[in-house]
Amino acid sequence: MITNRTFTMLKPDSVEKGNIGAIMNKINSAGFKILAMKLTQMSVSDAESFYSVHKDRPFFNDLVGYMTRGPIVAAILEKDNAVEDFRLLIGATNPADAAAGTIRNEFADSISENAVHGSDSDENAKIESDFHFSGREVY
Ligand code: CMP
After folding, report:
1. What is the whole-number distance in angstroms between the Cα of residue 61 and the centre of ligand 1?
2. Which architecture does CATH list for 5-137?
3. For the chain, what is the total number of helices (H) and then of strands (E)?
């Protein structure tokens, strides 16, 4: 089991608003090393699969529409205690609850369009990384 990697997506709202550089700067400044990164767009079936844990939630269709409406930046990040530290860096799911200085506090507008994704466990970091990257894309 990998314990020092996490997976992130800068979501379509971050790309649309021109925030890729500013968000990546915060990620680098917090000590995360980039092992893989690409600009890519999820298909509807990609998003339905990636977010299948939420398939019965009332916001599922809106979530799929949001995540497929434009490109995202997908990345694999490395740092000691990566999953937990990255979730601290991005802040609460709802930006209204996100602590000052967190990415969602600074860059997200709402609970539904919350700027970034961060894996919630080492197991999901591996699953999500493998969903987006082949082995030769990871350094
Ligand atoms: P994230 O936690 O990265 O992954 C699931 C996403 O579903 C979440 O970010 C939000 O984009 C969205 N989401 C979670 N809760 C809600 C909600 N109550 N209403 C709308 N969207 C939500």
Report:
1. 11
2. 2-Layer Sandwich (3.30)
3. 7, 4
